Amino acid sequence: MFVLRNAWIQLTRHHWRTLSSALIALIVAFGMLFGLAVGQARDTAVSNRSLLGPDSVVRMSADKLAERDGADPDWTKNYLTLDDYNDFYRVVLSDSITLGGLSASASVPVRQTDGSAKAIAGSDDQNADKTGGEFTLKAFTSVDTARKNELGRYKVVKGKHLSYSGSAPKGALISQALADENGLKVGDEITVAAPSDKSKTVTFVVRGIYEYVDDDAPAGYGSDAKLAKDNRDNAIYVAYATFDESGMSDSSGSGWSIPDLSYEFDFSSMDDYKTYKKDVAEKIPDGYEMTSPAIEDYEQGIVPIKALASRTDVATPILLAVGAVALLALALAGVARRRGEIGFALASGVTRGRIGWQFALEGMIPVAAGGVVGLLAAIVGVKPLAAAFAPEYAAVPAASMIWRLVWILVGTLVVLALATGLRPAFVSPASLFAARDGWNADDDAASDADASAETDAAAAADDADGESAADPTDDGEARA
Q1: pLDDT score, position 66
Q2: In terms of Cα–Cα distance, which of 245, 222, 225, 248 is closest to 107?
Q3: How far is CA 473 from CA 303, 354, 462, in A?
Q4: Whether residue 328 is found in the same domain as residue 247
């Protein structure tokens, strides 16, 4: 208790140093556990990529799309046909791959009609005979296919989603922007005409109103669209069965009545996808490329956790190194210039071991307290803090990480105990009585010589005074 009491007195006396040590230990413990947890979340996210059941679609490349002329009906000759997709499927069969699913989407431009909704105008609109129409009618076979819409993912904000079971054969989704432009609401009707025959019309019922999740439209398909049909807010979404029954497309026709088809193959494993991707490459026409929306979405989703982990990978070792140096410096500062205290304690009968143990406690107590508080705070706070940077991935400290940091903390305490506890061992008894700083041995000798000379002079003066005092007496005695 004597040692602990003395250590506590020193810690409270130098409270700024004590608080600094505790705070540094807290920050280092919290930061290291945060960095380790984020790194593990990143590694898990990257490794889970191999567990995906990826899909594949063949789409026009960006360079080919740049050549597109939306006012040229002959552009449809660049579309992929059913024969192309049959060739792709033969690769699946030849590789003995069992698909996890097959879905499709299709689109054609359609014309606005008199007395019905009008499309949002483009910046350089052309006659509908050239463009095929002012709207784009786009169909999906499933909600999963709709989620992979190349115009952007959308959400229904009013009404209902499309029915893929056929319960709403005339149901359609329109954009909130188009609804606002025409004063439309759920349950209203919208009539459009075929791209190659304006007299052929079909009427849809507004089943729902959508908004795009991503505010940034692909270049040329937002408010910057030259043609109205290219503005994604002019897209009318329907189920595939509704699209077939509408009569708005004709695969055997010509011009804009030819649908832009897209088939999606869903694979059961990443290995099957890689095999298919390698073997189908030679069958993909020039100007097209195979992509996997599922893989792209996954890669995009792990960007935040990868970016955060790349920063913590650098910051964590730096934090540990700087923190260790700072803690050691503060601990050594706490036992420096205490030779007089050590000497007084030794002279009072206190052993070097007890003094060393006191110094060790002074270095360990604030670091241990700060480290424990930092670990506890990290266990509770790492997950919500990481979620602020990467919401889709949970960075949860594993038990192995916590124990790893506990042992690092124990090792740090041992080093600090040795660095501070051995301080009394380097104080020799002889040095306790050595001259203080600023004293000089020659000056001491000169002072001693001066003191001796002054003593001799005083003695001589006393002798002289004594003799003078005795003489009158002797003279008096003699006269008597």
Answers
A1: 87
A2: 248
A3: 117, 70, 17
A4: no
Residue 463, class by beta-carbon neighbours within 10 Å (0-12 exposed, 13-18 middle, 19+ buried)? exposed
pLDDT tens string 409-447:
999 999 988 888 787 766 665 555 554 444 444 444 444
Question: What is the full DSSP assignment across 170-205?
Answer: TEEEEEHHHHHHHT--TT-EEEEE-SS-TT-EEEEE
Question: Residue 298: enclosing H or E segment and its boundaries?
Answer: helix 293-301
- Whether residue 153 is found in the same domain as residue 273: yes
- Using CA of residue 328, residue 333, residue 334, residue 337, what is the dihedral sign? positive
Residue 378 to residue 468: CA distance in whole angstroms: 93
Q: Name the β-bridge partners of 135.
A: 110
Longest Cα separation, the chain? 172
Domain of 358 in residue numbering reads as: 2-47+303-432
* Domain match, 211 and 359 both: no
Ranges of the chain with pLDDT below 70: 1-2, 425-480
N- to C-terminal Cα separation, the chain: 84
Residue 394 CB contacts under 8 Å (≥ 6 apart), including other chains: 41, 383, 386, 387
Q: How many domains does the chain have?
A: 2
- The pLDDT, as a whole number, for residue 430 is 55
**252 lies in the same domain as 123:** yes
- Structure tokens that stand for 146 in this block: 């709709």
Q: Which of 258, 291, 324 is the C-terminal boundary of a domain?
A: 291
Measure the CA angle with vertex 63, ends 227 and 272; round to 5°: 115
Taking the model in full, what pTM does it have?
0.68
The 8-class DSSP code of residue 233 comes to G
Beta bridge partners of 109: 136
What pLDDT does residue 140 have? 96
In the DSSP assignment, the letter for residue 392 is T
Q: Is the same domain home to 72 and 42?
A: no
- Please state, in angstroms and rounded to a whole number, the distance separating the CA atoms of residues 244 and 257: 12
Residue 439: inside a domain: no
In angstroms, the Cα distances linking 72 to 91, 119, 150, 287, 310 are: 33, 20, 22, 18, 48
- pLDDT score at 338: 76
